[in-house]
Design brief:
With 112 residues, this protein is mainly α. It is built from 5 helices and no strands. It has helices at 2-17, 32-43, 63-68, 83-97, 103-109. The longest helix has 16 residues, at 2-17. The chain is globular and about 30 Å long.
């Protein structure tokens, strides 16, 4: 009985002294609203834009990144895909590269 009490007390003490750190899981999906805010910053919210700067669509994705994360399943280039399809590929990019794939706008929006 005494051993069980000591073991329980030790476990309780360890649990109480262990710091709890809240960290967002890297693979956690962003909300639709977050992607819309990012697109507003990146392209003025125009999902079918081709600005001629080498980046395409609402989230301004390069052709190589689009291809590398499976975007060609939907369209040759991002601006030819739907908003939903662009977000689907962007989620993959975010899992692979983090918010750093969109450095200026994610910094401005506080996404890190």
């Amino acid at each position: 009985m005494r051993m069980r009490t000591l073991a329980s007390a030790a476990a309780l003490t360890a649990a109480t002294l262990t710091p709890v750190v809240a960290v967002q899981a890297p693979g956690e999906a962003a909300t639709k609203r977050t992607w819309e805010r990012l697109a507003h910053c990146e392209s003025g919210g125009r999902w079918h834009i081709n600005t001629g700067n080498g980046y395409f669509g609402g989230l301004q994705i390069s052709p190589g990144t689009w291809r590398g994360y499976g975007g060609r399943r939907f369209a040759r280039l991002p601006h030819g895909a739907t908003k939903r399809e662009q977000i689907k590929v962007a989620e993959r990019i975010k899992r692979g590269q983090g918010w750093g794939a969109w450095p200026a706008c994610t910094s401005r929006l506080g996404l890190r």
